[in-house]
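Same chain as my last thread, 739 residues:
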Amino acid sequence: MKLVIVESPAKAKTIAKYLGEGYKVDASRGHIWDLPEKTMGIDFENNYEPQLEARKPEQRETISRLRSEVAKAEQVFLATDPDREGEAISYHLQCALKLDPNEKNRIMFNEISKKAVSKAIQNPRYINRGLVDAQQARRVLDRLVGYTLSPVLCKKIRNKLSAGRVQSAALRIIVDREKEIQAFKPEEFWTISAKLEKRGKKPQFNATLSEKNGKKIKLKNKEQCDEALQSLNNGKYIVTNVKKSVTSSRPQPPFTTSTLQQDAVNKLKMSSASAMAVAQQLYEGFDIPGMGHVALVTYIRTDSVRVSDDAIFSARDHIKQFFGDKYVPEKPNFYATKKQAQDAHEAIRPINLDVTPASIKDKVQPNQYRLYKLIYQRFLASQASYATYDSVNVTVACNEYGFTATGKTLIFDGYLAIYGEIKSKDTDEEQNAALPPLEAGDELNLINLKHEQKFTKPPARYTEASLIKTMEEKGIGRPSTYAATMQTLYKREYVNKENKILVPSNLGIQVTDYLEQYFGEIVDIQFTADMEDRLDAIEDNNQPWYEIVDSFYQPMLKEVKDAMHGEKVVVADEMSDEVCEKCGSPMVVRTGRYGKYLACSNYPNCSNIRSLKQTTPPKETDIKCELCGSMMLERQGKYGKYLACSNYPNCKNTKPLSEVVAKCPKCGKDVIKRISKRGAVFYGCTGYPDCDFVSWDVPTGKLCPICQSPLIYKKSGKKEVIRCSDKNCKYDGGAKSEG
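reply #2:
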């Protein structure tokens, strides 16, 4: 009997299916050794050697079980994941199970398929100590940072805080953006667009003011706008130049770990952690009715866009079969992997293109289907033809001013037929509008001029997707750690996710400021990126791993001494949208033994406290703040919805948001939803006190045809029906949709 040891039971089940009789496949269930939980676990006298142990009962049970199986096996293969972490687990298994280090027993495969597994069994290799040392260096360095700095934060700021080599740098990125937003001062500007028409030719089109006397122009105030309008209202509009071209767009490469997380967040609205959990299931395999236990995608932890020749030819054949010859480019598409990427594994792709998303849709969980479809279509599209467009750029002159209009028409959809791209919210639809046939010298009719006051916007806060992209660009962490980093920031309450937007808490800002003051290198973006490169280089045995750790740890010890002599940090209270019902002062969010709660900011004069209920995330609106020009957000407070400026705290403008439900059946004015002093919902006319109409039920705005009392909506089972507000009236208006 030959024994194959993998990491997860799901993976073991999938591989056992391919190997058949003569093999036993078992799982280590992740790491069998780890650093101790309550002590540092680093031997400083012996080159930072980690003092690993089987600290959990289940780890000890696993080692005991595997030792028994090894004793019965004629040959052992270590088939843990094909990365640093997997290599370290194989090394630990080799040590714990007393396997011969001079024997080739390590096997790897990029995909869990019969072909890949069989090939790996035939080509075992030695444990790669470079990979093991690289993992060990990261683990030791992260332990040193966490166990050295976290106690400092707990003593100087508050309990249950942590710092981390990647975590703190990621938080710094979010906090720096928040400071940019707070320091931002909106600048006024105006835009002018002209709706134009070529005589006798359709369609009409819009052109945007862009020049004055041949130079780019930006209208900074209403006076400049009015001056331009005066000239433009009385001038002739002449086409001065028409530039036509055929442009193309190239498909995106297949997914890496980072880009998969980004698209899962943007397109599927999944968190990065959820995306990685589902991707792991697709890689390890699971039971699918009618197919058995199968894996669907290649290894999910990779930053390479390279794929095998077999996969490329398979994709081209599939595209030709289902989309036609013109969707297959003359030569395969190849993509360059980033310079700093680890190119050990292929990009993320389907194992078998014959297993289409549609074929498993009703057999798997919704998120498994959605993510598999995303991976499948992205890979297939990466080998499809370019999309091509007819592009037209037109310039129009009126007196001393110049306008531009751009038209873009899709000629051939190419890869877009397989995998569409998300368009930015800021994309101007007019820029892609159809244009009539135009030539230089054509005179145009002016239909109308539109002008609009606008304000420059601060830089956008990060989302999970944009933060992951930034971390990758700056070399902070590795793709496999991004999701875990995000979860730590949430858990420590350093960052809040509001309607997909990442907003640092007051605590997160204070922690970052403190680390900048005393431990500058921990939150220095470039230093962290350089350290990543040095850790990567350990794989090539360019430098002993413990020397790199020492070069980082010794300076940090000196900084700790300085920090411990510094003053304690008082974290500023986090303001809430609530008002104290006892004294009218704003309520603040504080953290106690049992979590967050609301407390009156007027303490000790007022000691009112109450529980903090989960609030509804703010919604974007198209209403502008009259004070600063930023967009208003719809928020939920104790007494209902209201509008608040998105530029808070630079602008603290708020105003009530009245939810209109119907017209008043008495006077015809709006009836709005209101909240009583006791928190009960009722509906009242905006014409009060001239009109006294109120209702505890939602009014329809109509009167009963029998008794002339107001008609209301009532629940009847799962339906909403129309009834008369007079209980003595027997009018039945039927279902709401019929009313």
